[in-house]
Amino acid sequence: MKFSLARQRAFDEILNAPDFVLVYQMGKVGSSSIEVSLEQANIPSWHIHTFDDNEEFQMYRNTADVACFFDWPVRTAYKLTLAHRKRILQKRDHLKIITLVRDPIATVVSRFFQDLHIQFIAGKKNEAIHGDMDATLRHLTDAFETQLRLDYFTGWFDREIKRQFGVDVLAHIKDPGQSHWRIEQNGCDILLLKCEAINQSADVLAGFLDMPGFTLSSSNEASNKWYSALYQRFKETYPFERLFHLYDAPLYRAVYSEEEIARFKQKWGQR
């Protein structure tokens, strides 16, 4: 990522645009279609997971392996840029934020496999990735259980939106049966969407954006990932009951009904 004063100033103008929208959520919760749709509607926006650092440094315990994929000077410049952009947004009188939540097991599994290259550092050292599929899968399963910080996901709203913008999202949620919530506090106008209902949310987004006729486009994310065979084997063999405790976290108890949680458990328990 290259940084220049001219580019920073140009982006500052976007952040200060009257109709600017911040798409602000943890990774792998279904924001891609929203990003694409905002761009197609010519609505100035920015997509961010955290204002502190690259998300991977917060999400994994093996940060030395994470660091292998980041250049230190570029990372430092990125953190300074994040702090600068955050100050601009915090000074706005009014800020629209779109954020999302998703079934936690789907979230953590999708995110872990997106970052699979990080776990191959140790895998190369212990020669797991030079073995057969089963040896590789054993290494990745161990990394999934020992290196992934699950509290990164369960505590995201407090650590990000509450800490950075002073809005306690969960305090505003009274009915977990809803598909979305609109929260207004401290100059922020926040739309929280369930990923599972995103395809039915065009009208909700149109109202939030004050743009009648807003359409939600598919992001057309490729499903044929390079790690698809490992991903499929993992989903077929991992005992997901080990992760059912995630549904007891305050975040997921607040936004999902008992019936929804039961359906999630049934889905993952059948694998």
How would you describe this structure to a colleague?
The chain is an alpha/beta fold and 271 residues long. The protein has one domain (5-269). It is 50% helix and 10% strand. The protein has 14 helices and 5 strands. It has helices at residues 5-15, 32-40, 55-59, 63-67, 72-91, 104-114, 116-125, 133-146, 151-154, 156-165, 202-209, 228-237, 250-255, 258-269; strands spanning 21-24, 45-48, 95-101, 180-185, 188-194. Strands 2-1-3-5-4 form a 5-stranded mixed sheet, with helices on one face. Helix 7 (116-125) packs across helix 8. The longest helix has 20 residues, at 72-91. The model has no long low-confidence stretch (mean pLDDT 93).
TL;DR?
This protein is an alpha/beta fold and 271 residues long.
What labels describe this entry?
single chain; 271 residues; alpha/beta; five-stranded mixed β-sheet; 5 strands; 50% helix
Q: Give the quaternary arrangement of the chains.
A: single chain
Total domain count:
1
Sheet-strand content, in percent, reads: 5-15%
Structural class: alpha/beta
Q: What distance lies between the first and last C-alpha atoms, to the nearest angstrom?
A: 40 Å
Shape: globular
Largest sheet: 5 strands, mixed
**Alpha plus pi helix count:** 14
